[in-house]
Amino acid sequence: MTRGTLYYYEDDDNVWSSTEFNGDMYHGTTEKPQGNGDKVIKLMTGLKSLDDFRNLLKEINKDYDYDEGNDCWSVNDEAIAIENKRAIEWIDNERPDLKGNDNFDPRAMERIPTFKDVRTWQFWGTPNLSDYSYIYNNSGEDLVMITRDNGEEMIIPDGCCGVLNYGGKDCLCRDGKIIDGMGHYKTSPELKEMNKKQFFEYITGNFTLDATSRNLVLNILDYVESKVYGEDEIQDALLELLDGIGLEDEEIKHVKL
């Protein structure tokens, strides 16, 4: 079963983590979602506080129904974690086999590493506490991670979620979508402002619709253009009338009729 852990980062002394969710924590793409990681990517956006992170974990936990607790590395399947300064304390207790690994940094034996140690040292699976590590950066500056990819840096900009797979670069996400697939995944295009014609072409080019549905969409766009005034009202109307196609709020926001 594929494991995954979520992190919320403000600075090296203020890092919080979920427990490790066990099962289907891999992800696909917006076009081809594959696991619970897709839900993580979609929701891991706009985090401004620890409370936001806790609410996110509660939503993810609906798929797991773990008890909620305060222990970062709980053995009791607790879903909510508290402040996480000692990011790999589990090594001594949970993974002593790593100590003999050729790629394990011997400095980790001298003391219990902090999160800063974990993100700046290159040793096995940095910072692989899970198969997938989803790290949200709310520090106000770039977060630099040293990965297991020959020590290459992974830069997670402020307001973005970086995903590592077994400590290697996986993808970079913003606004719930992959913006840099790191060579593994298709990158979501940056949306531009669209008029009615461009929006209709965007819908028909990205969603599978039969002829009747395409005509219905065009009629809806004609109706909204002629009857609804004000940018916010137009977006609200489109969200309601086009519900069921699979459009997201971010896509609707770029429509200017």
Question: Would you mind describing this structure in some detail?
Answer:
The protein has 257 residues and is α+β, with helices and mostly antiparallel strands. The chain has two domains: 3-180, no CATH class; 196-252. It contains eight helices and nine strands. It has helices spanning 36-43, 50-61, 90-94, 115-120, 196-206, 211-227, 231-241, 249-252, and strands spanning 3-11, 14-17, 21-22, 132-137, 143-146, 153-156, 161-165, 168-174, 177-180. The strands form two sheets. Strands 1, 2, 3, 4, 7, 8 and 9 form a seven-stranded mixed β-sheet that branches. It has a two-stranded antiparallel ribbon with strand order 5-6. The longest helix has 17 residues, at 211-227. The chain starts with a strand and ends in a 5-residue tail after the last helix. 31% of the residues are buried. Mean pLDDT is 77; it is low at 70-94 and 124-128.
Low-confidence stretches: 70-94, 124-128
Shape: elongated
Structural class, from secondary structure content? Answer: alpha+beta
Rounded mean pLDDT score? 77
Rg calculated over all Cα atoms = 21 Å
Strand content: 15-25%
Domains (count)? 2
What pattern of helices and strands is seen along the backbone?
Answer: EEEHHHHEEEEEEHHHH
Total strand segments: 9
The end-to-end distance, rounded to whole angstroms, is: 47 Å
Task: Summarize the amount of helix as a percent range.
Answer: 25-40%
Q: Main beta sheet, described?
A: 7 strands, mixed
Compute the number of helices.
Answer: 8
